[in-house]
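Internal QA ticket QA-208
Title: Verify multi-chain structure generation after dependency bump
Assignee: T.L.

Test input:
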Amino acid sequence: MFAYLPHTEDEIKQMLDDIGASSVDELFADIPEAIRFKGTLDLPKGQSELEVFKRLNELAQKNKQAVSFMGAGSYDHLIPSTVGALMGRTEFYTSYTPYQPEISQGVLQAIFEFQTLMCELTSLDVSNASLYDGSTAASEACALAINSTRKTDTVLYSATIHPYTKQVMETYFADLDVKLVELPSKDGVLDLFSVKENLDSSVAALLVQSPNVYGYLEDYTGVADLLHENKSLFIISSNPMSLGALKSQGEWGADIAIGDTQPFGLPSYYGGPSVGYIAAREKLLRKMPGRIVGQTVDEDGKRAFVLTLQAREQHIKRERATSNICSNQALAALASTVYLSTVGREGLKELSEQNMQKAHYFFDRLMDETGAEEYAEQPFFNEFCIKVPMDARKLVKEMEKDGIFAGVPMIDLDPSQSENLLLVAVTEKRTVAEMDRYIESMKGVLK
Amino acid sequence: MAKPEDLKFLKSHEWVRVEGSTAYVGISEYAQEELGDIVFVELPEVDDEFNAGEEVTNVESVKAASPIYAPVSGKIVKVNEELEDAPELINQKPYEAFIYAIEMSDSSELDKLLSYEEYQKVLEEEAE
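Actual output:
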């Protein structure tokens, strides 16, 4: 097998002649000599197909087989076989983002349906074609808020949003005149009193997350009014699986809804690829980042899909663009679209309720049967935080030996957290037998 | 109909019509021609305050998005809501379709604006 399929010398020469370059090296003239790689790459020799399969199999064997109670933003849900079957179709699977978009009506229709589903889930008016992940969506939502409110430079965010989201936001705004201000938490949820205390005319938006990083549900009664009186926007990040049973962002009065659609048809992989969603009220449409697909009719009056409102985008706005997002997560968004279409409205509601019920059943058992205690007394969806009487990282390592991924130690997400805190997620896939095993294993380690 | 000869202009191609202490602002014939079909006019909010030269809003055409600047300092008192549903009015009647009106806080700033003749010269220079 070739390591890759190279161009022939003739082809390379023809291309160089065409553009008037004398050598391939000349194409890299802009890259300083000092940082260019010299010599030849240390690559192994080509191998036969059989050898490659053997090697990949060996590597695959290193994966640990265990029942997962890990979440913290990426969850182990059932993925119906429709997802792989449709996503795997070459029309979708091998197509890159359509640069001549209207030729690819199927891709545009899939994106249009994704947008429609996101609007329905969030009870908001407009959605874009997707963003890279939930953290990008959070950062883009902050930028959208700052660009849509006059004379503002500050975004307030809750201490209870995912620490990785904070990190991405900090990177995004590191070189811009934007202030990110963290509001404190109280008993595992945002301290609502701090919102009023920190509101002034410089505040573009408040960004919160529910279910939050501890898995807890936050109560935003009155928050939207408070923000809107100050001409600030309200951004809520939610695990979209929770929206099947719980109040949506639009229902809380949010102006922008964001999150990550990984729970819909995407495995955890090694943390990605995932899909960020962003939906907003119509008045923000013109400043939405990324691509938007619209529905129209062609000259024969037949339904057709187009990329629309491109004046927002950077190839037209150039240096005045408010976002540099020019692509989306089409294939992964397709997985989420197929997933939602497969489970349907009722199915999603049932899934959401099952997640919640199983998590609550398991939480009660952990409280009754093990030495674990609750971190805070708060309502939760399919994930919760517990205190264990030892280093949570050690506990997780020990339980791995029994074939259980016990959860995510909070200290792994945020070094300022106590080493005794463990985040446990329970999806519809977890059975009572698996929960029994978890409890036995935990008891064994803790005794 | 407003005659362009009676209007004041900015180098950035806005026109200004003065009525008492209020300045109405739109974009010139030349600007709409250059932009092509206008598809969206973002309207500022009434009561928002701007300094002369500050960016007030945006006009989007099929090929560009252009900022609209404040010719004078003041407070927005009126926006042309007709443009929400009919942005093409700017293409059709550029000197009638104002975008916003601003209550001037310092009418002496008007002296810095260009007359129609001066604006024509700017256009000729740009064409060169």
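Spot checks passed. Chain A has three domains: 9-61, 67-77+344-446, 81-338.
Status: verified.
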